[in-house]
Fold:
Amino acid sequence: VGTEHQPTIAVCIPCYKAAATILPVLELIGPEVTCIFVIDDACPESTADIVEKHVRDPRLQVIRNEKNLGVGGAVVQGYQAALKAGSDIVVKLDSDGQMDPKLIPYLISSIVDGTADYTKGCRFYSLKDMRSMPRVRLLGNAVLSIVSKASSGYWTVMDPTNGFTAIHRAALQQIPLNKISQGYFFESDMLFRLSTIRAVVKDVPMASVYKGEESQLKIRRVLYEFPPLYGRAFVKRVLYCYVLRDFNAISLHFFMALTLIVPGAVWGGYHWWRSIQTGVVASAGTVMLAVLPLILGFQFLLGAVQGDMANQPTRPVQLAPEGARFKRTPPTDTSGN
Structure:
């Protein structure tokens, strides 16, 4: 952010069926925030009307979407408005009351002191807080955290679906906002996009408040929609980081793992199926031709993962000289994928 001036902070709040919770959330936002963007994502409860009727905060701006864009699409609307307003830091805050707006100064502290480009809440630091989390959410977030580490490359980051986040303007300008997932994969997709620009990401310990509300993120949706999205993000990241931009020892390990595991699995699978069909046990040589490439391939894969863990970005994007930053023009269309 720099030491020349006090950073301007914007808060984006996507709203859908938030009529009962949005007002208490707005009341808790502190004076450190410069502007507040409430995005009514075609809410059937007319959240925008409720906000405009009861809130007289001069920092408030209401954005109305004629059609529902999803949580990701709504946040992108807020990001674009914050960039246009010249905000230095943009905070994304959910409207359901599970996040304490009083924690915003704590959330953005690493961005303000220049040690991070993106910070996010993490509910996995305190065992006491984890006990208050519904077990289904706890298990789901733990599994998603492991998968997200591989797809994004941020191996020290947990709780990828946590929606309490903050991002520096320099990093936000480099992300193709029109390509970010518009649905509930938004937070995970943000981590992938941040990895492609080598942004520094940090977790911030926080507790969430659960009052028996029903989560909009369904287990069925996670099981069907998230795996291919994580897989695509992983493949893209490996290609971007270890083929197009650089080819190093990690690239070689990934290549050797792929060229050994795939043929070994195909060879072994074919002869296993053939043995079942014919009743003839495969020879020791046939088995070894399948097992040996698999063993060597997994050794190379472990080496690639170890190298990838050590290759996390350490220099924040915001510290790059102004002329060295690649800036995108904030898109007006968020329908891309």
About this structure: The first strand starts at residue 9 and ends at 15. The chain has eleven helices and seven strands.
